[in-house]
Amino acid sequence: MSDTPVPVTDDATGVFVGHRELMFGVVYNMLGSVADTEDVLQDTWLSWTARNAGAPLDGVDNPRAYLVRIAVNHALTRRAAISRRRETYVGPWLPEPLVAVDEDTGAEDPALRTESVSLAMLVVLESLSPLERAVFVLHEVFGYAHPEIAEIIDRSPAAVRQLAHRARGHVHARRPLYEAHPRVRREATERFVRAAVGGDIAALMEVLAPDVTVWTDAGGKRKPAALRPVHGRDKAVRFFGAYARKGGGGHLELRHRRVNGDDAVVLFQGGEPYAVLVLDLTPDGERVCGVYVVSNPDKLTHLRREEA
Q1: Contacts of 223 (CB under 8 A, 6+ apart)
Q2: Which end of the chain is more exposed for a tag (fewer CB within 10 A), N or C?
Q3: Burial of 300 (0-12, 13-18, 19+ CB in 10 A)
Q4: pLDDT tens digit sequence for 44-98
Q5: Which of 163, 10, 183, 40 is CA-nearest to residue 32?
Q6: Taking the model in full, what pTM does it have?
Q7: Integer Cα distance of 300 and 32 in angstroms
Q8: pLDDT at 2
Q9: Spatial contact of 94 and 217, defined as CB atoms under 8 Å apart
C-alpha cells in the first residue's frame, strides 16, 4: 500500500475549515482541554480526508452533521486517556481556560466566538459520565435535538432523552441557573483582587461567602498551591493572607480579561502568563462563592504574551 498522501479537494478542505469552530466548541466543552481538543480536531481531519479515498464529500448529504459526529466520537475516545492522566495529576484539576485576546480591539480567540461555557460550569460537567456530558453539551449548549444526538452518538432517541434528563438534573442541582450581570462580576472581581493582593483580611471577609471554595490548579509546577480545595471563608482568608504576606502579589501584573465568556483576571510575572483567576458569585452577586486559579504552565501555553 502506498504511503503517498491522497489529495483532498479544496471544497472538502473548505467544508472542514468552515465547521472547525463549531467542532472546537463542542469538543472543548466535552473535554475541558485546549490541547486535547486540538488533537481531536487533527484526528477528525485525518478521518475526514481518509474517507472515500480522499473524496470525503462523496455521498455525504450533511457534512456539518457528519463532521460533528466524527469529532464527538473521537472526543469520547480521548476522554478515557484524559481520565487516566487525571489519576496521577498533582492537586486539584481545573479545565484549561479560554482567554480573550484583546479587550480594547475586541479581537478574540476564534474559539470564543463559539458558545462559551463558564469555567465553573465546566467544573460541574466534569462530574458527568462522558456520554451524559456529550448529550448535555450538544443539547443544552448547542441546541441539538435528541434525535440528532442519537445519530451522533449511535444511541436510541429514548436513551438520549434518559441521558439528557440525568445530566440536566445533576447540573441544575449543583449549578444555579442565575448568572451575574457582567458589570456585577467585574466589580466583584476587582474587589476580590484588591483585597487578596493587598492582604486586606477585613475586605476578604466581606467579599467571600461563608461557604466559599478555592481551587488552585498548579499541576505541582507552581507555588503556592493547595493540594486540595480550600473550603470555608476562614481557611480561604488564611490562604490568601499567607500568600500576600510572602509578597506573592508584589511581583505580579494583573490584567482584566474575559475567560470562557466571563470577566476574570490574568496574572503575569516577568511579562509571561502566570495564572488565570476566575470567580463564581452567589446568586445575589454580592459575594464570591468559588475561586478558580489555574497556574499550571501547561494550561497557559496557548495564551501568548502579545495576546494578553
Answers
A1: none
A2: N
A3: buried
A4: 999 998 886 777 888 788 999 999 999 999 999 999 899 999 889 999 999 999 9
A5: 40
A6: 0.88
A7: 13
A8: 46
A9: yes
